[in-house]
Write a structure and sequence with these properties.
- With 540 residues, the protein is α/β, with parallel strands linked by helices.
- The chain has three domains: 28-378, Alkaline Phosphatase, subunit A, CATH 3.40.720; 388-460, Arylsulfatase, C-terminal domain; 502-540, no CATH class.
- Helix content is 27%, strand content 18%.
- β7 (170-171) and β8 (174-175) form a beta hairpin.
- α6 packs parallel to α9.
- The longest helix has 24 residues, at 257-280.
- Mean pLDDT is 93; it is low at 1-22.
């Protein structure tokens, strides 16, 4: 009898040695990011553009009703990857343009790096826009084992996929010549990656779309579908956005709304294809899908988006520029059709995912975000612990849009810097009672305005002095490469450490940093103590 039992056990062990490796049961993670999607441009917000895939995510997941991003592109992506406010990274005021040589400091811990260290497969499919001049800034050096897409923005929706005339479409540093509509190419690559993955490991996949960013273009059948869409959009109630619309009408330019709708529809179709792949692979229930827009919709004339009833749009810090469409689905853990109305920001994504999955983030600079998983998972009330700050100088150099808000008050500052004058316009709102920002209370509460304005000043002083600005044209005579995949300086051509700058010693650098005061920081990741007459100190 004992011999039979032993023989059976040996046989079972032998057969098990030939069975497939058991899949890791930890959840997969897919983050999809739209580029300039309007608040009112999805079906579940009553929009007139077909978005059945996003509507499905809303029905099957949690709608993050008060999810905030920065008002422009690169800063939001930097905040997502690091959990830190872009002001510290030197990326608050403007996006990384082709003639810039900066990116996010290589010492910053990126989200995919944490997943990779936890044993996840990591991939990115889409638009990077976080640095291209050195290999240290490349997606493959920031935790993504696989990268398919574009280093820049505005490469177009059809070949040759170029920026400033240089080809910008690659797979892991090698230029490719894939043909077709860009949005659908991203879906094809994402689906291929999921189907061909190592099934013994979970995966983290980042899918940032170009859509629906300008310059807009879409397949003809979708253009025909929206040829008669209503183009009489509600006013944005912001001078910059509404001014462009009036100018377009005076110049008899056709509305961008029909093409914008077609591009958005195509993006939703691509999302639907990925969701279907998760279904067919039998992994949808245990896959977290997070979707959000990188900023509010581009509601200006050539953008075509609609953020109403929110005020303003892309580039502005009114709610229409920073409060965005966001959804999170995890069927194995979360009930569908739920609306979370607590404030969450893009800086919170990194710590939230680490908390939800029990992953160690590894060594990192102090986060400005926090885990919102208790609020998402159980509805736990989580009031803001710190103020939220955002900024933009895009598109007009010297015109700053700034905001700080807490649970009660929100201050919006529009600062116009001319050669010898500076004009500040303050807008103060009780945001809980006035979410659409109709009632400016600045004159009635000057003490609150002053208190919040002082906080903005201190926060702005954290910005590295060589950070991005709204430099919409290149240095005179600058030339673009013919092929952007060859542009990043390879690691072997670079020195090991970050360049020290012009200060002859670290101690002199700290003194110079103090002397800069409110203007910004020389020393990376320093909390300024200039207001006390002392040297800056490291935030960690």
């Amino acid at each position: 009898m004992r011999f039979c039992v032993l023989a059976a056990a040996l046989l079972a062990a032998w057969l098990a040695s030939f069975s497939p490796v058991q899949a890791d049961e930890r959840p997969n993670v897919v983050i999809m990011v739209a580029d300039d999607l309007g608040w009112a441009d999805v079906g579940f917000h009553g929009g007139d553009i077909d978005t059945p895939s996003l509507d499905r995510l809303a029905a099957e997941g949690v709608e993050l009703r008060r999810f905030y991003t920065t008002p422009i592109c690169s800063p939001t992506r930097a905040a997502l990857m690091t959990g830190r406010n872009p002001i510290r990274l030197g990326l608050a005021y403007g996006v990384i343009l082709p003639w810039h040589n900066n990116g996010v400091h290589p010492d910053e811990r990126f989200l995919p790096g944490a997943f990779a260290d936890a044993g996840y497969q990591t991939a990115m499919v889409g638009k990077w826009h976080l640095g291209h001049a050195q290999q240290t800034y490349h997606p493959n050096e920031r935790g993504f084992a696989h990268f398919y897409g574009h280093l820049h923005t505005e490469v177009g929706y059809y070949p040759p996929f170029a920026n400033q005339g240089g080809t910008d479409f690659q797979r892991n540093g090698v230029t490719i010549d894939d043909q077709g509509y860009e949005t659908f190419l991203l879906a094809d690559e994402t689906n291929r990656y999921i189907r061909e993955r190592d099934r013994s490991k979970p995966f983290f996949l980042y899918m940032p779309f170009l859509a629906p960013h300008t310059p807009l273009d879409a397949p003809q059948e979708l253009q025909d579908k929206y040829a008669d869409i209503d183009t009489d959009l509600p006013p944005a109630r912001s001078q910059q956005t509404d001014g462009t619309r009036r100018m377009a009408k005076l110049m008899l330019r056709p509305s961008a709304r029909p093409m914008y709708a077609a591009v958005t529809d195509a993006m939703d179709q691509a999302i639907g294809q990925v969701l279907e792949t998760l279904d067919s692979e039998g992994i949808a229930d245990n896959t977290i899908v997070l979707f959000f827009s990188d900023n509010g919709g581009a509601a200006y004339s050539v953008g075509g988006a609609n953020n109403a009833p929110l005020r303003g749009g892309k580039g502005e810090v009114f709610e229409g520029g920073i409060r965005v469409v966001s959804l999170l689905r995890w069927p194995a853990k979360l009930e569908g059709g739920v609306k979370m109305r607590q404030i969450m920001t893009v800086m919170d994504v990194f710590p939230t995912l680490m908390d939800a999955l029990g992953i160690s983030p590894g060594e990192h600079f102090p986060w400005d975000g926090r885990s919102m998983w208790p609020a998402i998972n159980t509805g736990t009330a989580m009031r803001l612990e710190n103020d939220v700050f955002f900024a933009s100088e895009t598109p007009i150099y010297g015109h700053f849009n700034l905001t700080v808000f807490d649970e009660e008050w929100k201050l919006v500052q529009e600062i116009e810097q001319d050669q010898v004058t500076t004009t500040v316009t303050n807008h103060l709102f009780r945001i809980q009672d006035d979410p659409n920002e109709y009632n400016n209370l600045a004159q009635a509460h000057p003490d609150v305005v002053q208190k919040l304005a002082d906080r903005i000043r201190y926060w702005r002083a954290l910005h590295p002095i060589h950070g991005t600005r709204s430099q919409l044209v290149p240095p005179p005579g600058w030339r673009a490469p013919k092929d952007w995949s060859t542009y990043p300086q390879p690691l072997e051509a670079l020195q090991e450490a970050a360049a020290p700058g012009m200060a002859p010693t670290p101690s002199i650098e700290r003194i110079l940093d103090m002397q800069h005061g409110e203007r910004g920081r020389l020393t990376y990741d320093c909390e300024s103590r200039w207001y006390l007459g002392g040297l800056c100190t490291r935030s960690d």
